[in-house]
């Protein structure tokens, strides 16, 4: 049986402000400009509204696999 990839809705918020909203089903590079960085702590929630359990015997809710994150 082949693994299927579905488009996953994805939203990134930086300090409560949406900085990206789109879909992905593989590698995604997002370059952000003029984002609301602040001195000190910055919060970057990754929202996955389409997240769901992968199967009947697996109740985990899975959204995206984040393999790397680079912030310059």
Helix and strand string, N-terminal first?
EEE
Rounded mean pLDDT is 85
Tell me the Rg in angstroms.
Answer: 15 Å
| Approximate strand percentage | 15-25%
Structural class determined from secondary elements: mainly beta
Q: How many DSSP E strands? A: 3
Helix content percent band? under 10%
Helix run count? 0
Low-confidence stretches are: none
Distance between the termini: 41 Å
Shape: elongated
Oligomer kind: single chain
Sketch the major β-sheet.
Answer: 3 strands, antiparallel
Describe this structure in words.
The structure is a single chain. This protein is mainly beta and 72 residues long. The protein has one domain. It has no helices and 3 strands. Strands 2-1-3 form a 3-stranded antiparallel sheet, with no helix packed on it. A hairpin with a 2-residue loop joins strand 1 and strand 2 (17-24). The chain is elongated and about 45 Å long. The model has no long low-confidence stretch (mean pLDDT 85).
């Amino acid at each position: 049986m082949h693994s299927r990839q579905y488009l996953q809705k994805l939203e990134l918020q930086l300090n409560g402000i949406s900085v990206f909203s789109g879909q992905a089903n593989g590698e995604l590079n997002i370059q952000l400009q003029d984002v609301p960085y602040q001195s000190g702590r910055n919060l970057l929630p990754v929202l996955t509204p389409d997240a769901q359990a992968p199967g009947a015997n697996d109740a985990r809710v899975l959204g995206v696999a984040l393999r790397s994150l680079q912030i310059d």
